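pinned: reference chain
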Amino acid sequence: MTSPNHQVGIKDFEAHRRALTGLAYRMLGSRAEAEDVVQDAYLRWHTADRAAVKEPRHYLGTVVTRLCLDRMRSARARRELYVGPWLPEPVVDEAFDEGTAGDLAHDISVALMLVLERLTPLERASFLLHDVFGLEFAEVSRTLGRTEAACRQLAARARAHIEAGRPRFATSPEEGCRLAAAFQSAAASGDIAALQAILAEDVVLYSDGGGKRAAALNPIRGADRLMRFFGGVLRKNPAFAAAQTRPAIVNGLAGLVMREQDGAIDTLAFEHRDGRITAIYAIRNPDKLQHVRF
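pinned: its structure tokens
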């Protein structure tokens, strides 16, 4: 039988689980690793002197951040050996709600995740803890073991990179869903002309197979090159056009979940501008798709 104090501890933790998972996901780019980190934080929470914790959310954010920084040290080495483009593990049909104001608090788009990936671990942590998680820089300083001024500079550098990488124009979710449906229809019918009609001239495809499934080893840039690539895929693998698909929201973007004839799952997410698709993020690495259900 659990004690009342234990029950209170569980309640305090569960109130922040989603926010902590969102923080860890933005730090690591992996939903599976984020959940592992949050579970580690849960275990540490139950051995902590909770009577001395004034603000559980801030305390737990600090614990999660330090656990993530430990993991990121080994992740850096793994990323250097990664086969092809690295994309974050997709979050499908859901969002992390931090309960804080501002677009950044809810933004887990692939583009933002890729910008975060290019930051140093300390820049990423300073930005996320202050701008997204809501910690004062004095608390960020204690978490990272850096001076308050240094943490301000780290967050400012991160913020500049992120603002430069954010879309300049607002996009319509309805337009994104329309383009995703049009892409699916063109791919299913093998209609190259219809596909070309919805692609921007500067469109780019990022495909992440992780060396475990076929994928382009480098981003494919430009509509002409992308059309040739898709034409080759449809010729060499006619089963691709016969894959089952369902509409989905992938990292906040209109997208598709695909199930091929062998049961393998893919996800596609689309960025768009002026009625055309500007970026396609395709994840095929099975290690990143274990959470995704068709």
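why pinned: DSSP finds eleven helices and six strands in the chain. The radius of gyration is 21 Å.
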